[in-house]
Amino acid sequence: MRIQYLWRQRTLFQLMTHRRASTYNKRPFWRRPWPAALLGCAVAGTAIIAFSKPSPIDANYPASVARHIHEALYRQTGSSLQDFQRAWKAYQSAIEQAEKENMDMESASIQGIRLQMANLQESSGGYQLAWKLFWDIFKRTESLKDFTEQRVIIASKIIELSEPLGLQMEAAKAADFIIQSLLRNEINDEPENKSRLFEQTATLYFQLGKPSYAVPLYYQALELTMNNPTCHGLILMNNLATSLLAQTDHIDKKYHEKLLQQSRDWSQKAVDSYHFAYPKDRTLECHSGCAAAFFTLGQVAERNGNVEMAIKNYRNAESLRAHDPYNDGSMMAHIALDRLDKNAFLRPNDD
């Protein structure tokens, strides 16, 4: 009897243990004591490590300067005029405090504060002051080592702001620096970004009336996009064709025929590339680039005295208004047709 009693107790104990284990396993992970405790320790340890590690600002600036920079960055996230004013004042206080701390006012750390001030002015619409700040930083950092890529970014900003301000002539020095850095392979960046820099400098030289400078730069920009063709390639091809056409206003007439042929070839390549693309892959940039290429073909035909071919190309450019009503090529083609086509008033108005 004693053995039977002990056996029953043992069976009952196993049954209770099994039920508890089953209930324990059915609980969610976060309600189990040991895993929940381990998870809590892991989260707490990660938080301690993250918050105990100093930020780059605290590591590169004295505490009195870093405090103002942190305040400026916080205020800069706001959208009100008061936030902008407080951020600007905090940056100014950081510069003043850095001078009191006997920091090198020409060092990269101080230029970083000035760069933030320039970006703040640009984001708020103060383009004139932003341009002056970017230009001042560009000149101050001329002798800094290992600052080439940052200077290229600053030079690009100078060129970007120069067009709305009418300061393209002053921005030519920044463009020269970008080209030298690109040709010396001093910029470790993606081909698409290098292509954008070549295009930006080429556009600046074209606006300055130097199409002979723009041609090789547009060609370099196009070459860098060949491995990953996009609709922007059509824009680059037409810009190259337009620059070749513009050179006829600056060189002897004996070279005109060759330049006109090269311009026609590049414009035709842009048109062919447009037609090779699947219709579903043609973006607004594709339509705009093809319209501009047709307009350039019309200009070349007009320069060669072939008015009928010019009208045909202008009409092709204008027809792309159905896809992009406000693209430059179609609108300029419409003006050219009004000038050349005697029956222009008979054409239906698609507007």
What does this structure look like?
- The chain is mainly alpha-helical.
- The protein has a domain at 229-351: Serine Threonine Protein Phosphatase 5, Tetratricopeptide repeat, CATH 1.25.40.
- 74% of the residues lie in helices and 0% in strands.
- It contains 16 helices and no strands.
- Helix 14 runs parallel beside helix 16 (328-340).
- The longest helix has 25 residues, at 2-26.
- The chain is elongated and about 75 Å long.
- The termini are far apart.
- The model is unreliable at 15-22 and 47-52 (pLDDT under 50).
Largest sheet: none
Principal-axes geometry comes out as: elongated
Mean of residue pLDDT values: 85
Subunit organisation of the chains? single chain
Give the C-alpha Rg. 33 Å
Beta fraction: under 5%
According to DSSP, the number of beta strands is: 0
Count of DSSP H/I helices:
16
Class of the domain at 229-351, according to the CATH hierarchy? Mainly Alpha
Assign the structural class, choosing from mainly alpha, mainly beta, alpha/beta, alpha+beta, or little secondary structure. Answer: mainly alpha
Output the CATH topology of the domain at 229-351: Serine Threonine Protein Phosphatase 5, Tetratricopeptide repeat
Helix content: over 70%
Q: Which segments are poorly predicted (pLDDT under 50) over 5 or more consecutive residues?
A: 15-22, 47-52
The CATH architecture classification of the domain at 229-351 is Alpha Horseshoe
What sequence of helices (H) and strands (E) makes up the elements? HHHHHHHHHHHHHHHH
How far from one another are the termini? 107 Å
InterPro entries: Mrg3-like, TPR-like_helical_dom_sf, TPR_rpt
Coiled coil: 81-108
Organism: Schizosaccharomyces osmophilus
Protein name: Mitochondrial inner membrane i-AAA protease complex TPR repeat subunit Mgr3
